[in-house]
Design brief:
With about 325 residues, the protein is of the alpha/beta class. Helices cover about 25% and strands about 25% of the residues. It contains 8 helices and 17 strands.
């Protein structure tokens, strides 16, 4: 039996790449791993995961899992954990994992390590505290451990070949106390923030909502990027929705390129993007904290610099 069970994150039958960060953690833990895929019509997700070295891929494919609810997903995870015999139950640390993993821990009497960012010697785990200013080393004293993985801290696992066997998992979800009513998604042709290779984010220095979009849309277009924002922006301007927030209380991203426009760099925002591979900052305040984490910084007025930046990028192609 495997030592680790990874619960894959998927949406609409598409695998979320954060799952591959969970696979990377499993590889570091060692001992072999199984994968659980939960949803309705998720055979393609299971197939996509076959080449990553799992001992077995459990698939809970049923209409009851068609729309995410914590209770059915918890039941499926507990059933898979029992079938796998796993000591560690691992999934992503986004809104998906934050919702159902604590319920799994409660159901099986396991300790939980939330937002794991690395391993330490002696079976210990690292996790951030105080907006990432402190990295705590923690130990779980229970026989089984539930772990949520901060995907931005791990490289995505690469395929290793082979073809893991797929096994259908029958789950009795029992009486579900909640029911799915509706899901009002923000429609956008741009990449999802946590999935994008390039993210461009704007701050309160862009003055107001319409101006924000006038500046950020052309910049996002030239990079085929996702658009993010600071908490001050999403709290203040109705034109910029809350799900665009990057930061401690928003989404944590680590794209290949992060462009921060008119963002001062408050610690809460830095906690959500400082692990980006390359950070470019444009701000007219030379003392802005964002420059402390930036790989490239431009002290300039964003309203003048961004159009010039766009033209330079276009000319280089």
């Amino acid at each position: 039996m495997a030592n680790i069970l990874i619960v894959a994150e998927q949406s609409g039958g598409e695998l979320k790449k954060g799952t591959l960060a969970a696979v990377q953690l499993a590889n570091q833990l060692g001992g072999g791993f199984d994968v659980l895929v939960v949803g309705s019509g998720v055979g393609g997700v299971a197939t996509a995961l076959q080449g990553y070295g799992a001992g077995k891929i459990y698939v809970a494919d049923d209409a009851v899992f068609g729309n995410y609810l914590a209770q059915p997903f918890k039941a499926a995870t507990v059933a898979a954990a029992e079938a796998s015999g796993a000591k560690f139950i691992v999934s992503t640390a986004g809104t998906f994992g934050k919702d159902f993993l604590p319920r799994v821990a409660g159901a099986i009497g396991a300790g939980m390590v939330a937002d794991c960012v690395g391993l330490a010697e002696g079976g210990l785990f690292k996790r951030p505290m105080y907006a990432g200013n402190i990295i705590a080393t923690v130990k779980a004293n229970t026989e089984r451990v539930v772990i949520s993985v901060r995907a931005s801290e791990f490289d995505n696992a690469s395929p290793v070949g082979g073809e893991s066997p797929i096994e259908a998992l029958s789950v009795d979800v029992g009486d579900v106390a909640a029911r799915f009513v509706s899901f009002d998604a923000t429609e956008s042709e741009r990449p999802e923030l946590t999935e994008a290779d390039v993210v461009v984010s704007g701050g309160r220095g862009l003055k107001d909502g319409p101006t924000f979009w006038n500046v950020m849309n052309p910049l996002a277009d030239v990079f085929s990027a996702a658009v993010g924002a600071t908490r001050a922006v999403v709290d203040s301007w109705d034109e910029v929705p809350n799900d665009m927030q990057v930061g401690q209380t928003g989404k944590v991203v680590a794209p290949k390129l992060y462009v921060a426009v008119a963002i001062s760099g408050a610690i809460q925002h830095l906690a959500g993007m400082k692990n980006s591979k390359t950070i470019v900052a444009i701000n007219k305040d030379a003392e802005a904290p964002i420059f402390q984490v930036a790989d490239y910084g431009l002290v300039a007025d964003a309203f003048q610099a961004v159009p010039e930046f766009i033209e330079k990028v276009k000319a280089a192609r």
